[in-house]
Design a protein that fits this description.
About 55% of the residues lie in helices and about 10% in strands. It has about 150 residues and is mostly helical. It folds into two domains: about 100 residues, no CATH class; about 45 residues. A two-stranded antiparallel ribbon has the order 1-2. Strand 1 and strand 2 form a beta hairpin. The protein is extended and about 75 Å long. About 10% of the residues are buried.
Length: about 150
């Protein structure tokens, strides 16, 4: 019986067999074409539901290429010889987000990722500092309330 894990494996096969950019809608269609589609009154309903589900699963699989703040990144996604550089990244082209292998990225696209990570890092440090300020202010307020 076909299950979600089988679908993930199939999506990964299509992604790995695709050279260069991997538009999610294209991957979805390749996966859909690998399976028989029902006939009958509910055919359109099936196709809408199945395509939507497959597309969401494709998005999740491609989402592995999203920039991560994890302390220990997924080793399967890291380029050999590096601790953080990913084998592929998500980029936006003509309003569509695609996953592209780092070897196929232009220097400009890599520089954009560098800038994006720098902004993310700055934002994360600011966020952490504000959380600390909030926590300390709340503790001080509680202490002051307890002394009253």
């Amino acid at each position: 019986m076909f299950n979600a894990n089988d679908l993930n494996c199939e999506i990964d096969e299509v992604i790995e067999a695709t050279v260069g950019k991997k538009p999610p809608d294209w991957i979805t269609e390749v996966v859909m074409q690998r399976h028989n589609q029902p006939d009958g009154e509910d055919r359109d309903f099936y196709l809408v539901c199945a395509r939507g589900y497959v597309r969401s699963m494709v998005g999740k699989r491609l989402g592995r290429a999203k920039l991560s703040t994890a302390i220990v990144p997924d080793e399967q996604l890291v380029l050999p010889g590096f601790t953080r550089v990913q084998k592929e990244y998500l980029i936006e082209e003509e309003g569509v987000t695609v996953s592209i292998p780092i070897d196929d990225m232009t220097d400009e696209q890599i520089a954009e990722k560098e800038a994006e990570l720098t902004v993310m890092g700055t934002g994360c440090f600011e966020h952490a500092a504000e959380l600390q300020r909030y926590r300390l202010a709340r503790a001080a307020s509680r202490e002051q309330g307890a002394q009253s």
